[in-house]
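Running this now, will post back.
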Amino acid sequence: MSVVVAGGEREEAGTEGLRDPRVEGATMASYEWTRFLVVLVGGVLGFGLASSGLYAAGYGSVPVANLFAITVTAGQLVWVLGYGVTAFVLWFVWLRDLELTGV
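Update: finished.
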């Protein structure tokens, strides 16, 4: 059984969900990789620049918390939370469903 997609072409049933009718030759998998890379690069660059900016402005070494006799500075807090949130989002959205098993 075939179905008509954008532009009048015919495709086999079951494959219409894999094609993006807005862009010739693009698949949804390519959009997922693009989204993954945007979150990865944006998280690394964004939080890296934020942490670096705090240190450059002189606020990176300002203590913001004291946990178990360890002083946490603003730069450390932004670094840990930023990269932690980025890693969690990448895992939760894309990597959680992978079955990673040893050989």
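The chain has a mean pLDDT of 79. More later if anyone needs it.
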